[in-house]
Amino acid sequence: MASTSASSIQKSFKYDVFLSFRGEDTRKNFVDHLYHALTQKGIYTYRDDEEIKKGEKISGELIRSIEDSKFYIIVFSKNYASSSWCLDELVKIMECQKTNEHTAFPVFYDVEPTEVRKQSGAVEKAFEKHKEEESAEKWRKALREAADLAGWELKNIFDGHEAKLITKMVEEISLELRFTDSSVDGKLVGMETRVKDVVSSLDINIEDHVRMIGIWGMGGAGKTTLARAVFDQISFRFEGSSFVGNVREMSGHPCGLKSLQKQVLSDVLNDPNIIVNGASDMKRMMRGRKVLVVLDDVDHIDQLEALAGEPNWFKPGSRVIITTREEQVLVAHGVPKNLILHVNLLSREEANCLFNRYAFGRLIPNQGYEELACQVIRYAAGLPLTIKVLGSFLRGKDELEWRDALDRLKTIPLKETLKILEVSYDGLEEDYKEIFLDVACILKGWWKERAIRALESCGFHARSGLKVLEQKSLITVSSNGLLDMHDHIEEMGKNIVRRLHPNEPHRHSRLWIKEEIEDILVNNKGTKAIKCINLRLVNLYVAKKGLQKMRGLRFLKMDHLFHDIGQDRICLPNGLRYLSLYNYPFKCFPKKFQPNNLVGLDILHSNADQHWEVGEKVEL
């Protein structure tokens, strides 16, 4: 199957706009103002600065400039048709216009469309001297075709106010360019629909109020990319705009919030030397302009209070976009629930496309790499950050290097992904960190209510703790009430537990790998460091003494037990606070087990008939 390289999907142009005009009519007024308005908005515009056209034919350089421009603005004035140079330009423009790559917009400055179309009135008078020339007919055809295009007629728009027309033209050209740019950037995969959703929530056509919206999601999910794409697409619609990146990081520096306040005001007022003395200056200086402000990676309410305190700081019509991993920050700042947009991970199709762009520079994998690419995409599990990092890393490597990298990922997590994800963990209170690690290592896939019961048995405020984790995008709760988290967040949690002593599992706080647990139990390596164990398919003979040294063990879950020893040969730690046994073979617990600290007990499909009230001191 033939493939298309990323660079050839759509042609790129040297110029955004080519201006065609009659210098003596409009160079020093309308065209001059239009040119400066376009360039101020970052629209790269070609304007021929020759005061007098030299020669009868347009130059090859000018033809190349026309071919290398995406849009054409043709300013029809009374004397436009008197210039053979202008008419040759027009013929070339109309030739390019017929392709799908170029678009022409006529401006009827001081003539009417019908005069251009029929070469009547002022246009007829201007064209008079060309009637007998060899090119007359192709020039007439070009004038007719141009007059039929959608464009702008000055006298019928804004009552002939040139400044207002220029503002509208720049706005519409900007919008066209942003649509084009979003389709050209093949690495913004999956963004089109997401951008539309954000723009729809902003509702920028309603200008009687200020609106703040939140973009919320886990680290590496593409919040910043999405916010930047929206900013680039709509910022031209505002009188001032500012994109403030890395708010979390920057606000931690000395005078960090003050420097961010200065950045916002410098951007929206276009004044790099502005002096800011706090929130009162922000409010006073911004409320006179309709602005777009993006605050990226916010993690504390103080940052919002300093940078976008209240809607009355801004002129009606202004919009503020806040990206964060912390849903509660948005709620606390008064962002309505319906304006908090959760960033979904990439679909399988989107993930395929994005990875192929980064790894192969095209739409499909190179021959022989299809299955390897699928393995990487499965590992990434829809997280754009991982897809980009791995795609860039693997690009240009041979098949053996790919296989080696994939084997390494089975035991060594991707450092760049973990670094981004761990920011959310680092911001947790200590007890919430413990809850997170319990979920990552053991409780993922549990019913939420059962997990709450187990965590509360261990002394945690589990209900509020799980809510915090959910608001920080560290966990999710499925529609049927099961705890879940992204594979890389689970990987990050397990890495936190193992990394200090990677080759000494008996020093880990949580154990979930069967072979490691059995080795610790059989060889009596238990330590006080071990807090939680989740073990399946274990012979109780293995556990007969190995649990005894685990004096810090608070959580023990053992499933599908079988045995070849008597019950009194098993030693359960007396410090246990939660105990879950599935298929326990005996009718009672070991005599030496004193469950004075035991709060939670789950015994399923077991022979035990010894019961006590939860929390009650029990003699066995």
Automatic annotation (TrEMBL):
GO annotation, biological process: defense response; signal transduction
Keyword rRNA processing appears in the UniProt entry: no
Keyword Mitochondrion carried by entry: no
SUPFAM superfamilies named among the record's database cross-references: P-loop containing nucleoside triphosphate hydrolases (SSF52540), Toll/Interleukin receptor TIR domain (SSF52200), Winged helix' DNA-binding domain (SSF46785)
InterPro entries reported for this sequence: Apaf_helical (IPR042197), Disease_R_plants (IPR044974), NB-ARC (IPR002182), P-loop_NTPase (IPR027417), TIR_dom (IPR000157), Toll_tir_struct_dom_sf (IPR035897), WH_DNA-bd_sf (IPR036390), WHD_ROQ1-like (IPR058192)
GO molecular function: ADP binding
Domain TIR: 13-177
A Pfam family reported for this protein in Swiss-Prot or TrEMBL: TIR
Keyword annotations: Leucine-rich repeat, NAD, Plant defense, Receptor, Repeat
PANTHER family, sorted: ADP-RIBOSYL CYCLASE_CYCLIC ADP-RIBOSE HYDROLASE (PTHR11017:SF544), LEUCINE-RICH REPEAT-CONTAINING PROTEIN (PTHR11017)
Name under which the protein is recorded: Putative toll/interleukin-1 receptor (TIR) domain-containing protein
Phylogenetic lineage: Eukaryota, Viridiplantae, Streptophyta, Embryophyta, Tracheophyta
